[in-house]
Amino acid sequence: MEKSFQELDLSNAFLFAAALEDPETCRLVLEIILGEKLPPVNVHAEHSILISSDFRSVRLDIYANDEIEVNYNVEAQNKNEGNLPKRSRYHQAEMDVSSLKPGQDFNDLKPGYVIFICTFDPFGKKLYRYTFEERCLERDFPLGDETKKIFLSTRGENRDEVPEELIHFLEYMENSTDAYVATVTEQSINKLHNKISKLKKERDLEARYMTFEELLRSREKDGISQGISQGIVQGKVEDILELLEDYGSVPEQLTEKILAQQDVEILKKWHKLAAKVTSIEEFIEKM
């Protein structure tokens, strides 16, 4: 049975995206995850709340940076597709390309964090937090490229090795209720819950959620009735977006248009076009 908007937990990609679009909420979540205070955070909202290419979920990519020029990519994951290591590599590369302007020195690259919050155990080691960085295998010292990839799991069991605040945050991801919050003492969790509760009272946001859910159901139903192979459609959409992302950040309106396209022939045409053009602007002009 589907949950109403008011019943959603923070692990729901739509609610998570809506919450982290608020810079203060995004900073609060990052502080809990990283265990340190951060300066004000700027959120790139145009990268968040995108309909996924398989029309069964809502894709989330929150890109943020802070005043000391650190980049963050935060994503909520509810399904283990076995590709998170490679996806983290792709997200880091995407952040690096977008943060370095032509002519800038490589030393100008900003430190970067790629963070996945999972409702499953991505590596099967029963840890709440897995942190990775580039290191020398022969002498075990860091490369110093200032990048980290963090995978959080709500299925962790090593309570003695991580802060209690982080454990409570991960539990809150799947139990975003007044009853759960009443059992914890951290001010950060209470503050986060107050923000989520306020979001759930926004009628406009609830309407957006219902519209997205209806669109997802409609697209899936239409795809089945017309005999469209979702695998082919998904592959073409991903290929087009990957090619366009080589030229910079893809506008949200263009992304949604590509994701909403179900005609395989049109997608094939756009794929060929994306491989030929030299800019996103040229693609939009000729599509």
Provide an overview of this structure.
There is one protein chain. The protein is an alpha/beta fold and 287 residues long. The protein has 11 helices and 8 strands. A 6-stranded mixed β-sheet has the order 1-4-5-6-8-7, sandwiched between helices. Strands 2-3 form a two-stranded antiparallel sheet. A hairpin with a 4-residue loop joins strand 4 and strand 5 (71-77). Helix 8 (230-244) runs parallel beside helix 10. The longest helix is centred in the C-terminal third of the chain and has 23 residues, at 203-225. It is globular and about 55 Å long. Residues 46-60 and 224-228 have low confidence and may be disordered.
Short description:
The protein is of the alpha/beta class.
Question: What layout of secondary structure does this protein have?
Answer:
Elements: H1 13-20, H2 23-34, E1 41-44, E2 50-51, E3 58-59, E4 62-66, E5 71-77, H3 84-99, E6 112-118, E7 129-132, E8 147-153, H4 164-174, H5 178-181, H6 187-199, H7 203-225, H8 230-244, H9 252-260, H10 264-276, H11 280-286
Parallel strand pairs: 5-6, 6-8
Antiparallel strand pairs: 1-4, 2-3, 4-5, 7-8
What is the number of helical segments per DSSP (H or I, 4+ residues)?
11
Largest sheet: 6 strands, mixed
Tell me the β content.
5-15%
For the terminal residues, how far apart are their CA atoms?
A: 40 Å
Query: Which structural class matches the secondary elements?
Result: alpha/beta
Shape: globular
Tell me the Rg in angstroms: 20 Å
Strand numbers in spatial order across the main sheet: 1-4-5-6-8-7
Q: Helix coverage percent of residues?
A: 40-55%
Counting DSSP E segments of at least 2 residues, the number of strands comes to 8
| Low-pLDDT stretches | 46-60, 224-228
Secondary-structure element order, as H and E? HHEEEEEHEEEHHHHHHHH
Mean pLDDT: 84
